[in-house]
Design brief:
The protein is built from no helices and 11 strands. A hairpin with a 4-residue loop joins strand 7 and strand 8. By secondary structure, the chain is mostly beta strands. It is globular, with a radius of gyration of 13 Å. It has strands spanning about 5, 10-15, 20-25, 35-40, 45-50, 60, 70-75, 80-85, 90-100, 115, 120-124.
């Protein structure tokens, strides 16, 4: 079992940056694919980015590519999402998720554990 806790959300002006962190419990963190999703009010939860257990494979939703960077530190049981050039449409609750499989996935149903989310609000 893995417990996930996100932090680092907040209010930022358009064009600004935030770095989200997701701390995981458990000694098997390094075996999980980790992903970030987000959910805006009235919308479905959507995939943002995912990273394989050793960081060797990374995948982004096209609209995030070049602005967002996912990374992980297995020694600290933490995955990060660096978000730059933020836009008002990036406003959402951001969730991290863990997938107990070797391959990256983009579907919500492919992830086994979820955090509670952290709010990101981008003002125009």
């Amino acid at each position: 079992q893995v417990q996930l806790r996100e932090s680092g959300g907040g209010l930022v002006q358009a064009g600004g940056s935030l770095r989200l962190s997701c701390a995981a419990s458990g000694r098997t963190f390094s075996s999980y694919v980790m992903g970030w999703f987000r959910q805006a009010p009235g919308k479905e939860r959507e995939f943002v980015a995912a990273i394989s257990w050793n960081g060797g494979s990374i995948y982004y939703l096209d609209s995030m590519r070049g602005r967002f960077t996912i990374s992980r530190d297995n020694g600290k049981n933490t995955v990060y999402l660096q978000m730059n050039s933020l836009k008002p449409e990036d406003t959402a609750v951001y969730y991290c998720a863990a997938r107990s499989a070797a391959t990256i996935a983009t579907q919500r149903r492919s992830y086994d554990y979820w955090g509670q989310g952290t709010q990101v609000t981008v003002s125009s």
